[in-house]
Amino acid sequence: MGHLSLPASKRNPRQWTLLDIVSTAFFALVLLFFLLVFTPLGDSMAISGRQALLLSTSDPRQRHRLVLLVEQGHHHKPIEACPANSVDHMPCEDPRRNSQLSREMNLYRERHCPLPDEMPLCLIPPPPGYKIPVQWPESLHKIWHSNMPHNKIADRKGHQGWMKEQGPYFIFPGGGTMFPDGATPYIEKLGQHIPITGGTLRTALDMGCGVASFGGSLLSEGILTLSFAPRDSHKAQIQFALERGIPAFVLMLGTRRLPFPAFAFDLIHCSRCLISFTAYNATYFVEVDRLLRPGGYLVISGPPVQWPKQDKEWADLQSVARALCYELIAVDGNTVIWKKANGDSCLPNQNEFGLESCDESNDPSNAWYFKLRRCVTPTSSVKGELPLGMIPKWPDRLTKAPSGALVMKNGIDLFQADTRRWTRRVAYYKNTLNLKLGTAAVRNVMDMNAFFGGFAAALASDPAWVMNVVPARKPLTLGVIYDRGLIGVYHDWCEPFSTYPRTYDFIHVAGIESLIKLPGSSKSSCNLVDLMVEMDRMLRPEGTVVIRDSPKVIDKVARITQAVRWTHTIHDKEPESHGREKILVATKTFWKLTSASH
């Protein structure tokens, strides 16, 4: 065969000289400089680099230095914004982190918080197009689509009346999986068997609540429902509930007690909540029993109640209720209503689930990271608890000192003094400080250090609801708050709260430094910077923060406000109050990510 003859120049390619290599590198650097400075590529690379820096956990020392600079007022610019994809971030309910955990007893869907040094120190931005939320009561029926543009629930559940998109809004017809025609007719039906009206029922718990239309509909009856659901495949259902102005909380019934005191709720409701009440030898039913006030009502709608192919599950559910001497009030289609016994007359007897009474060493109101127990809480184990029907009706129960106040020495006197004090203080907030309490601008309120709930009680006639938080390391006074007909949770403020960003209009805290101190010690277990960054995460743009503390602590807080992009003023306390407190009032500015931050 012949050979192809190539020209000499192509047979022997030119050898690169050092000058060629240097020249090419120079032109490449010039081109890269042009791309970085004059094109969007540079912006995106800078942002990704900054995001990597923000989310880095490799150097806690750098984080500590930043915290110290902010605390001392030496950090003269705001803390960095978190990445654009973190607009809905909840640190303790992060699916990427939790999906690696065990599925057993829903462990992976409970709260699991990163260590403080593992958390990025940055401010959560609002989503693009965010608007100041629709005000109450209009928000019950519609919210801005752009505030949480998650269409998954509307697409999957629209035919059941949960919600649907309409122009710039999501609208809420009031339906649910078990009441597609709306919660109101469903509640009217329940009212044939349960005293829905008249003030007998006041505190309710809705488990696996969807977008909380059941709880929203009960508000007009004077029943205050705390609705909960986990962060799950129905993206942001609790976020939708809170945007509507309905009390709600991210929570999962898994391996631990729910963060509420014993006998807190007059009514507990599950509408297709898919909780397996009889699993693990009825452990979940026993936890519901711990939370239900004697004489209270348990309503379960949906599986397994008279459900196809779930005969055994339905039979087991009835067996547990009988073992605990619950009175069967009605079975109507796929809905069952039970009434809990009033007292200890029915301690668990021989039963197939092996249920026994809890011993005296078990404090049934201890519920912060407390492992579930498969023992039944005796009524007598809670100080001063009163069965439904004997406790005063709403609204009288709000101001009548419950005997549960005796958890504190001189508790009744303390309760009455606390009620008077907060009536004065809230009047001062409204009349002298001109805060927006009592107006349509304030619907979702949080009291971070609630004690007996005096602040919330003073707001009872306002168009607002209050999440009363009792710090887990302080006296367990949350039972008193529920006895008064208010709602709340236990929480440790050295961890993030189980709520979505931008869910509260108004956050109140008396004694902020006490929230980070170890009990009986001057040492801190966390820092004010992280706490205020978390408060900023929960607060809506243009929302209000009120902090009461000593002048020294208020000075510390004031130094941090600039770093979290709040404006603030400092005021003297009301004239009638004793002590040396100052009051800091701050407003969260409505800032957005710049185009360079996307």
Précis, in short:
This protein is α/β, with parallel strands linked by helices.
How would you describe this structure to a colleague?
The protein is α/β, with parallel strands linked by helices and 598 residues long. It is 28% helix and 17% strand. It contains 17 helices and 19 strands. The protein has a seven-stranded mixed β-sheet. Strands 15-14-13-16-17-19-18 form a seven-stranded mixed β-sheet. Strand 2 and strand 3 form a beta hairpin. The protein is globular. The chain starts with 7 loop residues before the first helix and ends in a 10-residue tail after the last strand. The relative contact order is 0.10.
Characterize the largest beta sheet: strand count, sense, and whether it forms a barrel.
Answer: 7 strands, mixed
Report how far apart the termini are: 63 Å
How many strands in all?
Answer: 19
Count of helical stretches = 17
Radius of gyration, whole Å: 28 Å
Structural class of the helix and strand makeup? alpha/beta
As residue ranges, the low-confidence spans are 1-14, 33-58
Which strands sit side by side, in order, in the main sheet?
Answer: 6-5-4-7-8-10-9
Mean pLDDT score, rounded?
87
Enzyme class: transferase
Transmembrane segments: 21-41
Organism: Hibiscus sabdariffa (roselle)
Membrane topology: Single-pass membrane protein; Single-pass type II membrane protein
